[in-house]
Amino acid sequence: MPRAATVHDPPSAVGTAPVGLWRFYAYFLRLGTTGFGGPIALAGFMQRDLVEERRWITRQDYVDGLALAQLAPGPLAAQLAMYLGYVRAGTLGASVVAILFVLPSFLMVWAISVAYVRFGGLPWMQALFYGVGAAVIGIIARSAYKLTRLTLGGRALLWSIFAVMALTTAWTEREIVWLFILAGAVAATIAAGPRPLSASAWALLTVAAPAVGAPAAAPSLPAVFWFFAKAGAFVFGSGLAIVPFLYGEVVQTNGWLDDRQFLDAVAVAMITPGPVVITVAFIGYLIAGPWGMTVAALGVFLPVYLLVVIPAPYFRRHVSQPLIKAFVEGVTAAATGAIAGAAYVLATRTLVDVWTAVMAAATFLVLTRWKISELWLIGGAAVFGLLLRGRFA
What we know:
Layout lengths: L20 H14 L4 H15 L5 H13 L2 E2 H44 L3 H29 L4 H17 L4 H16 L6 H10 L12 H12 L3 E2 L4 H12 L5 H12 L8 H31 L2 H7 L3 H29 L3 H16 L4 H16 L4
Helix pairs in contact: 1-4, 2-4, 3-4, 4-12, 5-11, 5-14, 5-15, 5-16, 6-14, 7-14, 8-14, 9-12, 10-14, 11-12
C-alpha cells in the first residue's frame, strides 16, 4: 500500500488515467474558448470532464484545488484551473494552463475593445449598450442573491457582515478594503473563542488577506499594472467580487472611466467565455490602449498565479483548519455584501427609465427561475435596446 503523500512531495498524477500533457493543456484552451456561465459553471465543467469522464485528475486533487480556490484571493475558476495544471506538471503546468485558459477571452475582449472605441460614439452602439447595461444590472443582482443563499445560510454573524458591507458600499459608493480583512478577522476570532490563533494559522491568514495600498494616481503603465495587481487580491470566489472595488477606484477615485464605460466593461466580460475578471482587460484598453489591457490582465492574474505555485502545498495541509475556514467565510460574506451594494449604486446610474428597469427586472427573474445562459439574455437585451431606440445605422 503506497504511503500517504505529504505537502513536500512533488505534484503527481498517481491514480489518474494517462494523458499527454499537450492534450491536457488543449482542454483548458477549449474551456477558455467555449466556457460560458461564470465560475461555478466552469468549476463544474472541470469536475465533469477531468474527474468523472476522463479521469485525468483524481477526485481528491480536485477537492483540494476547489478548497484552495475558495480560501485564497483569486477568481475561483482561474485558480482551480491553475491548480489542476500544477497537479499534473508542477509550476510549468500551472503556467501553461494559466496562459491557455485566459488567452481566448483576452483576444475576444481585445477585438470588442477596438470596435467599442472606434464605434462607441455611433447611435447604434449606444443603443446596443443601453439594453446590455440594464441586463448586466439584473445579472449582478442575481449573483448577489445566489451568493447569499450559497454562503450565508442561517448564520446571524455572516448576515450581519453582509448587511454592513452592502450598506457601506451603497452609502460611500466605493469598497472599503480594510472592512474585508476586518470581516474575516472577526469571523475567525469568534470561531476561535478563547483559544489563541496558532502561528501557522496567522501566517496563512496573512497570506490570504489582501494587501492594502493607495490607489494609483495616474494611468501610466506601471501604475495600471500595480493597481490591477492589488485588485486581483480582492477577488474571493466569484469574479464579480472585483466589480465594487474596481468601480470605487476606477470611476469614483481615479476618474479613469465614467459610469457608462464601466458598466459596458462588465457587460463585455459577460458576453465572452472564460473568467469574468477579464473585464479588467477592457478597462485597461480604455485607459491606455493595447498595452494598458495587457498589463491590466497580467496584474490581475499575477496574485492568482503566485498563490497557486508558491503556497499551494502548505494550503493543502492547513485547508481543513476551522479558523482558516471561518476567515474565508467572513471575507466571502463581506464580498457578497459589496456586490449587493455595488448593484444598487450601478442601478441608480443605469436604470434611467421604465424600459431599463423592466429589462433589469426581467433578467433577474429569468435567471432566478430558469437555467439560461447570461449570453442569451445579454444578446436579447442588446437587440431590444436597438429596437427600442430605433437605430440601426
